[in-house]
Amino acid sequence: MGDVLIIAEYEGGKLKGYSRELASKAVELATQAGGKAQGVVVGKNVAQAAEELGQFGIAKATAIEGVDLEPYRGEAYTKVLFELIQKIKPQIVLASASNLGKDVLPRLAMKCKGGLATDCIDLKIEGGKLKAKRPIFAGKALVDVDFLSDIQFATARPNSFATKVVDASKKAEVEKVQASVGELRVKVKEVKEAEKGLKDLTEAEIIVAGGRALGSNENFKIIRELAEVLGATVGASRAAVDAGYISHDHQVGQTGKTVNPKLYIACGISGAIQHLAGMRTSKVIVAINKDPEAPIFSKADYGIVGDLFTLLPILTRKFKELLGK
Length: 325
Prior knowledge:
This protein is of the alpha/beta class. It is built from 9 helices and 17 strands. It folds into 2 domains: about 5-180, 3-Layer(aba) Sandwich (Rossmann fold); about 200-325, TPP-binding domain (Rossmann fold), CATH 3.40.50.1220.
């Protein structure tokens, strides 16, 4: 008992940032529970990503590969991960609150008859079992979740924990498994590339975010133009999403995504506490707002008081000149 299994994700043969931080948390929890942390990566050519878990203190990992595992289908992932859980019998199973984690972990919890806490911002061991903290009521309150089941499942909100590299040269011992899941109910007929500016917010180094002040979906064009010049990802406040100006995939905040970019440019965002909670760890925050009393300025490293419809085209033009675009 006390072992922790992390379901890690990868891109381009390397672990995603939120899987690195979750690996660090898994090691911490396993130590508290008196067990060991293990990792698993599922997909195509995943051994290198599985080895990378060793940098964060995970000694053993499983690389599950197979022709049925790409492109992603929740049914296939659930089958191979359930078989692994039955084999190694962890007490705790963790995944990021990514699209994959949100799809697979509820399926696994049901099959294993375990409790599940989703979108957690804190995890710890208390009384020998996992205890989770997660937002409720649209981020206006936090609740502690206790587990009654022998096996506990949780998805963690990306950018909630610190990434701790134990040994950058260390590689996890990887067991390679060739999986065949057989006939599935779901067939993938086509995979489309995400629209420009819809790359994963949780992994973005630069984010240009717009608020309700944009006034319409059409006006978000000036946000997208600046983001494209900077090689940035487009974000938005909940107010902009609720108004229908942009899809929920772009939402930053307690009811959206928690981000940790090197640069966060907030345009026409007043700075509600729920939004600030989702971007407060950004390395540099630039705020553009016509209201000098907007709360966002109290968190910004640089602030510009002015009309965003005048300022953003100027910034876009100047950055094009500076970057030679």
